[in-house]
Specification:
The structure is a single chain. It is built from 8 helices and 15 strands. It has 311 residues and is of the alpha/beta class. The protein folds into 2 domains: 196 residues, Formyl transferase, N-terminal domain (Rossmann fold); 95 residues, Roll (Methionyl-tRNA Fmet Formyltransferase, Chain A, domain 2). The strands form 3 sheets. A 7-stranded mixed sheet has the order 5-2-1-6-7-8-9. Strands 10, 11, 12, 13, 14 and 15 form a 6-stranded antiparallel sheet that branches. The chain has a two-stranded antiparallel sheet with strand order 3-4. The radius of gyration is 23 Å and the shape is elongated.
């Protein structure tokens, strides 16, 4: 089976490596162009490019998929299938129609739930206890194509975007191999999605990280998990940005008669009043201009006054 692989971030790397290990003929790897990064704005390669080069594969980095040169280059490869994992671009019609077995996408949710660019983040932020991965045939819509295979994955209380993404990427890699093998043997049929059940997971913006302390404590805790590492949960304290790295799951019924955002510090524990006086304990924070630290260390270096609150 001749493949073109399209992907960009670390999430896509396990699938590419599995395809190589399983002896699929990955003719070319398509990924985003290198981008400036860091203080020196040096060009940095996408993780998929680095993995492809380690494996000795050809890498192609078009700025646009509709350029005639791109159309000619990829069409000449005559792929049986195009595998897409977190590539970051909608495929144009010419590319969808190119392979005989179609363009097969690995999506990090149980479709039709959480269509869009940030399914893992939104599953965590909305307090889901189960998510999963789906392989689907790409059509002209945004994650609207027919479903091929799905696998459920439990979300743990200590999961963040980083841990859940790593687990889903490895499970998804195995699912993609299984999908391609069955397509190759002709024993896999697709199922249309129930579009009435669709929910969306739009890409996150910097301002999505700002915490509204008038929300319930459980909802804020879920947001902290889903927002890490970017854009990160943050608030304002004494005119500076305070990043919130980790928090403890709120205890049901633990309340205090304080306005939302008011701080309560006892025995080295940093707790914040949320909606209806529910308390959320922050366990790891980082004040602007300082290093990341346990909340106990933050309290040791910060003298809280009565009534101190997050803005």
């Amino acid at each position: 089976m001749r493949l073109i692989f399209c992907g960009t971030p670390e999430f896509a790397v396990p699938t590419l490596e599995q395809l190589i290990a399983q002896k699929f003929a990955v003719n070319v790897v398509v990924t985003n162009p290198d981008e400036p990064s860091g203080r020196g704005y040096e060009l940095k390669s996408p993780p998929v490019k680095e993995a492809a080069l380690r494996a000795g594969l050809e890498v192609y980095q078009p700025a646009k998929l509709k350029d005639p040169a791109t159309v000619e280059f990829l069409s000449s490869r005559r792929p049986d299938a195009i595998v897409v994992v977190a590539y970051g671009h909608l495929l144009p019609p010419w590319m969808i129609d190119l392979p005989r077995l179609g363009c097969i996408n690995l999506h990090a949710s149980l479709l039709p739930k959480y269509r869009g660019a940030a399914p893992i983040q939104w599953a965590l932020m909305r307090g889901e206890t189960v998510t999963g991965v789906t392989t689907m045939r790409i059509d002209a819509g945004l994650d609207t194509g027919d479903i091929l295979l799905e696998r459920e994955v439990e979300i743990h209380d200590d999961d963040t975007l980083e841990t859940l993404s790593a687990r889903l990427s490895n499970i998804g890699a195995d699912l993609m191999v299984k999908t391609l093998r069955r397509l190759e043997h002709g024993d896999l049929s697709s199922q249309p999605q129930d579009h009435t059940q669709a929910t969306f997971a739009p890409i996150l913006k910097k301002e999505d990280g700002r915490i509204d302390w008038a929300l319930p404590a459980l909802e804020i805790w879920n947001r902290i998990r889903g927002l890490r590492p970017w854009p990160g949960a943050y608030t304002r304290f004494r005119g500076k940005t305070l990043h919130i790295w980790t928090a403890s799951r709120p205890v049901t019924g633990e309340t205090i008669p304080l306005e939302p955002g008011t701080l309560a510090a006892t025995r080295g524990r940093l707790r914040v009043a949320c909606a209806q006086g529910n308390l959320l304990e922050l366990t790891e924070v980082q004040l602007e201009g300082r290093k990341r630290m346990a909340s106990r260390d933050f309290l040791n270096g910060t003298k809280l006054a009565s009534g101190d609150r997050f803005e």
